[in-house]
Write a structure and sequence with these properties.
The chain has helices at 16-26, 71-82; strands at 9-13, 30-33, 38-41, 47-52, 62-68, 102-103, 112-117, 123-128. It is α/β, with parallel strands linked by helices. It folds into two domains: 7-54, Signal recognition particle alu RNA binding heterodimer, srp9/1 (2-Layer Sandwich), CATH 3.30.720.120; 61-129, 2,3-Dihydroxybiphenyl 1,2-Dioxygenase, domain 1 (Roll), CATH 3.10.180. The strands form two sheets. The chain has a four-stranded mixed sheet with strand order 1-4-3-2, with helices on one face. A four-stranded mixed sheet has the order 5-8-7-6.
């Protein structure tokens, strides 16, 4: 086993300036450093490093999850204040409602969750605790 001093997640984007605006201004994450990319502090103390990659391809999975107390309030804020559009998917364990939320709790199919994308096409989710 390795003895790690710290851990952090990383994510690529195609435009670091757009990513900075989105992650810092829209999602209100704390920017720790932007010398070689964006070093962001996440709620709960973890960190995320975002770097620009010329041949970036969006992650084919949910790259970042925000656990929230009230998913409706989070969606109202993100959609209403920032114009974020929530994704719709086929073949989920239950239907998404008109807000784009998979109401997993009511369907006995996991948490209530909704997905949106960052400017580089990476998928992010809000999940109700």
């Amino acid at each position: 086993m390795i003895t790690a001093l710290n851990t952090f997640a990383g994510l690529s984007v195609d435009n670091i300036a757009k990513a900075k605006e989105f992650y810092v201004d829209t999602l209100a994450l704390e920017l720790v450093d932007d010398t070689m990319g964006l070093q962001l502090k996440l709620p709960g103390g973890a960190e995320l490093f975002i770097y620009e990659k010329p041949d970036h391809e969006p992650a084919s999975y949910t790259a970042l999850n925000f656990v929230v107390e009230d998913i409706n309030e989070a969606i109202d804020h993100l959609a209403g204040h920032h114009g974020i559009v929530f994704e719709r998917y086929e073949n989920l364990p239950a239907e998404q409602d008109d807000r784009g939320v998979l109401r997993g709790k009511a369907a006995n199919a996991g948490p209530d969750i909704a997905w949106f994308k960052d400017p580089a096409g990476n998928t992010i989710a809000v999940i109700e605790a």
